[in-house]
Amino acid sequence: MITWKDDYCIGVEEIDNQHKKLFEIANGIYKLLKNDVYLDKYDRIVSLLDELKDYTVYHFKTEEDYMHGIGYKKLLSHKVQHDDFIEKINDVDYQKVDESQQAYLLELLDFVAAWIVHHIIENDKLITAE
Description:
Layout: H1 13-34, H2 42-70, H3 75-90, H4 94-99, H5 101-127
Helix pairs in contact: 1-2, 1-5, 2-3
């Protein structure tokens, strides 16, 4: 389970709220991973991936528009990180997901949780630090 901490706030309410939503999506991945009721989780995994992809595209645009609006100097390098995240989600091999659903969920959770926390602390907090 990935837990939101006030340390992750960057001081821009809209972006902080969107980060919280990303945590909710990550926790949805966690809950599905721990769910022993569903034997076949493929459709739920695809649904979570679609939600993650759609929401990150929306969130990244909000964040990039904000950075542009304040003249943030590291906007382009920050955008590259966003684009890399989206590319990784777009490059999912759904055949492999179907063949090894639990392993994929664990890999996805590890990636998303680590990326979100690292990106907020190491990159997003810099936006408002200048």
